[in-house]
Amino acid sequence: MISKSLFGNRLKEKRKFLGLTQAQAAEKAGIERETWGKYERGVFMPSGDVLLSFLNMGIDVSSLFAAEMPMPSENLGISKEENELLVCYRQASDLGRAVILSAARGAEKKAAKDHQVSAADKTA
Fold this sequence. Notes:
Layout: H1 4-17, H2 22-29, H3 33-41, H4 48-57, H5 61-65, H6 80-91, H7 94-123
Protein name: Helix-turn-helix family protein
Pfam family, one: HTH_19
Organism: Neisseria musculi
């Protein structure tokens, strides 16, 4: 079992990784900003419902309780741009996430189509 202060420090790191203020994180979690602050300071531990809201925000809850911290994203081969996209996606509303996915899928289809046209031009 980890200490409340270690949990709080990890939660703070996750919030900052997502680019959120305490107020923004609290709003996304459906709790008061003061409560979020108490989690980060190790005064309180969140309930199961709050932990589920953390998951919905994109926080890896298991890493908050892990005996060892996982490696930072930069050591996992994630570029700065990929990390920025992930942060934006996690902060987006449901509609925003749909738009991001649609744009990514559309760009992928366009690239595939352009590749087919280019290949056809070379054979003609």
